[in-house]
Design a protein that fits this description.
It is a single chain. By secondary structure, the protein is α/β, with parallel strands linked by helices. The chain folds into 2 domains: 3-30 and 279-405, Lyase, Ornithine Decarboxylase, Chain A, domain 1; 101-271, Alpha-Beta Barrel (TIM Barrel), CATH 3.20.20. It contains 12 helices and 21 strands. The chain has helices at residues 17-24, 33-44, 63-71, 81-89, 106-115, 125-138, 173-185, 206-224, 250-264, 275-278, 311-315, 402-405; strands at 3-6, 9-12, 15-16, 28-32, 52-56, 75-78, 97-99, 119-122, 142-149, 171-172, 189-195, 231-233, 268-271, 282-293, 298-302, 321-323, 332-337, 346-353, 360-363, 384-389, 392-397. Strand 20 and strand 21 (392-397) form a beta hairpin. The protein is globular, with a radius of gyration of 23 Å. The N and C termini lie far apart (61 Å). The mean pLDDT is 96. Bound molecules: pyridoxal-5'-phosphate and lysine (LYS). Lysine (LYS) binds at residues 58, 160, 162, 200-201, 311, 369.
Length: 416
């Protein structure tokens, strides 16, 4: 376990979280290098070359996290030119990058072509035409995988379901063959693969395997037409237990994919896991500012808020909240809420906790879509981030300073 109690104090690996909070302040994101490494290796162990693993950068894009994964041999799934720049700054290689996203700009396409990425996951017929033009201007061929929407219900929160035909993602199944034929006809497009990503925090294997069967069938049909698809990217989406949910076994999933691909032959598989790599490796540490008791409700008011961790406000997501110092006092039922001026600013509702002013609480499983979705709402500087490895700790992002928040803003030039 990367987060556990030692002598009644929560530790990240061998680092005392109260001491980390004293040194770096709160709100503070704490990540375990050992846990990220173990999560990565769990996938890599069942995924022999030439199959590729491309970590989804959006889950946690801190340079140190990307650098760790690059050292472990990761490829990367990006969704913007900014994420590509991060990957390169962190020591990742462009040749291991796949570029997803429904609205890539010309500038982003040009940048990715110049860097020489592995492939573009093209999400519409219009994007394909634009990519062909940008590649022509650059005098290069654009490597392409078509993202197809398989219309499979991932049975997850509607905001993070992406593989239904009502969702904005991917090329509709009924259009996929026509777009593939068009890709073959375009002079600066090199059609190599198909991909799909049906959603996130998926808790059973069926939707993944249903999607895989649909995609493999499409590859078979295209090959019969003479369109040689040689890679299939099944995206990310593996869920993690936030509330002791049962989650799919990575090895069973990966082996089922490998077996299916082998039947078809000559197919390289890609995966884009995000949450499963970093989710349980991070915690958000916060300090209790006040307690407030009403007739109907008890509130624990803390120094972290929805701007630090959006998931509860946005998806009503559950994150365990546990005391950094264990105590035997009676617990009360409390809402853990932050300082932001929104009723939706909560980290947890109806939690059994005993907390006093000055206590630290740890919001668990916050390593994925935690810091990356944070904002400066209410002019709140974003949290610091640290990485622990055994008994060592490294600051991997300084806490933002107030001056950082209005950098690039200007007073009016007109006289009063
Ligand atoms: C295209 C794509 N790939 C990969 C991921 C990573 O998903 P997850 O973090 O659920 O593994 C996402 C996010 O949902 C995505 O949109
Ligand atoms: N941001 C979502 C995951 C969606 C990822 C983007 N496709 C979450 O926090 O659960």
């Amino acid at each position: 376990m990367s987060f556990d109690y030692v002598n009644g104090i929560l530790h990240a690996e061998q680092c005392n979280i109260n001491e980390l909070s004293d040194t770096y302040g709160t709100p503070l994101y704490v990540y375990s290098q050992t846990q990220i490494t173990a999560n990565w290796q769990r996938f890599a162990a069942y995924w022999p070359a030439p199959h590729k693993l491309c970590y989804a950068v959006k889950a946690n894009s801190n340079l140190a996290v990307l650098n760790l994964l690059a050292r472990l041999g990761a490829g990367f799934d990006i969704v913007s030119g900014g994420e590509l720049a991060r990957v390169l700054a962190a020591g990742g290689k462009a040749k291991d990058v796949v570029f997803s996203g429904v609205a890539k700009s010309q500038e982003e396409m040009a940048y990715a072509l110049e860097q020489g990425i592995y492939c573009f996951n093209v999400e519409s017929a219009a994007e394909l035409e634009r990519l062909n033009q940008v590649a022509e201007t650059h005098g290069v061929m654009a490597p392409v995988s078509l993202r197809v929407n398989p219309d499979v219900d991932a049975q997850t929160h509607p905001y993070i379901s992406t593989g239904l035909k009502a969702n904005k993602f991917g090329i509709a199944m009924q259009d996929a063959r026509a777009v593939a034929r068009r890709a073959m006809a375009l002079p600066n497009i090199n059609l190599q693969g198909l991909d799909c990503h049906i959603g996130s925090q998926i808790l059973t294997l069926e939707p993944f395997l249903d999607a895989a069967d649909i995609m493999l069938n499409l590859i078979h049909e295209l090959r019969e037409e003479g369109i040689q698809i040689t890679h299939l990217d099944m995206g990310g989406g593996m869920g993690i237990p936030y509330q002791q949910e049962r989650t799919p076994d990575v090895s069973v999933y990966l082996q089922s994919l490998l077996e299916r691909a082998e039947k078809l032959g000559n197919l390289t598989l890609l995966l884009e896991p995000g949450r499963a790599i970093v989710g349980n490796a991070g915690a958000l540490i916060t300090t209790v500012e006040y307690l407030k008791s009403g007739e109907d409700k008890n509130f624990v008011l803390v120094d972290a808020a929805m701007n630090d961790l959006m998931r509860p406000a946005l998806y009503q997501a559950y994150h365990d909240i546990i005391p950094v110092r264990q105590c035997d006092a009676d617990t009360a039922i409390v809402d853990v809420v932050g300082p932001v001026c929104e009723t939706g600013d909560f980290l947890g509702h109806a939690r059994h906790l005993s907390a006093q002013e000055g206590d630290r609480l740890a919001v668990m499983n916050a390593g994925a879509y935690g810091f990356t979705m944070s904002s400066n709402y209410n002019t709140r500087p974003r949290a610091a981030e640290v990485m622990v490895n055994g008994g060592q700790v490294q600051l991997i992002r300084e806490r933002e300073r107030l001056e950082d928040l209005w950098k690039g803003e200007y007073l009016l030039e007109t006289p009063e």
